[in-house]
Design a protein that fits this description.
253 residues, mainly alpha
Length: 253
């Protein structure tokens, strides 16, 4: 009995209503944190003595870059669970994360190029970190394209899971590239093993926006996975009951 309760949420039918209740909380938290973080980053944080106000783009660039890597690792984790335990929900969660991961990677690349022009004198250079981040975008797009190219959802799940796990090797390459190679990109401003190399108010704004991006990702992924559940479980009894209940509520309204 305890084991069945432990794995209850691994069922799409059980997870669907739970996800629906979580979405407003994560969505509202993301909006509040984004507003606070942008206020700190754009108005409260002081002007940098070397880069001027151009540095403020890091408040968008750095959280997006962090999330681009973190989402991929989470997607690979769900993919591994799906392959190892053949759970439908794991594959659906991995599928729901890919578009947001691609968006975060695109934002990181775009804002990085805008930051690079006044800082390095060029929008783009085939630097190790920038190139590996571009490869990450191609991996996200490749996974999305591969899924759309395979008609059978279970075959698509397995193929995308394998590609996700193979591509995970690129994440540590992105992170450690500035240490392994002599790159144009500067080193990490925040490290677990050293004191931050920025003012406390700058660090606070960046971390708040990072949490905002994290909560946004959770809210959007939960929204997307609910749609995926309805599409892939359309022949299941719980989906039919859900639609019947919605029709009853609409008639009462």
């Amino acid at each position: 009995m305890a084991a069945s309760n432990k794995y209850k949420l691994s069922s799409p039918a059980a997870f669907y209503p739970v996800a629906g209740r979580m979405i407003p909380w994560f969505g509202a938290s993301a909006a509040v944190l984004a507003a606070i973080g942008l206020w700190i980053g754009l108005w409260l944080a002081p002007t940098d003595f070397a880069q001027g106000d151009a540095y403020r783009i890091i408040f968008i660039h750095v959280p997006a870059a962090w999330m681009s890597m973190f989402i991929y690792l989470v997607m690979a984790f769900w993919s591994a669970l799906g392959l190892g335990f053949n759970t439908r929900l794991s594959a659906m969660m991995a599928q729901s994360l890919a578009p947001t991961g691609a968006l975060m990677t695109l934002i990181a690349l775009f804002t990085g190029s805008l930051w690079g022009r006044p800082t390095w004198g060029t929008y783009w250079a085939w630097d190790a970190r920038m190139t590996s981040e571009l490869i990450l975008l191609f991996l996200y797009l490749g996974i999305i394209a591969l899924r759309n190219a395979i008609d059978d959802p279970r075959r698509a799940d397995r193929a995308c899971a394998v590609l996700s796990l193979v591509g995970a090797i690129n994440v540590p390459i992105i992170y450690f590239s500035v240490r392994w190679w002599n790159t144009l990109h500067q080193g990490s401003s925040v490290s677990l093993s050293a004191a931050p190399r920025m003012a406390a108010v700058m660090l606070a704004g960046m971390l708040i926006l990072a949490f905002a991006a994290w909560f946004y990702t959770i809210a959007v992924a939960l929204c997307r996975v609910r749609v995926i559940m309805l599409e892939r479980e359309s022949g299941s009894g719980w989906v039919s009951e859900l639609f019947a209940l919605n029709i009853v509520h609409l008639k009462k309204a």
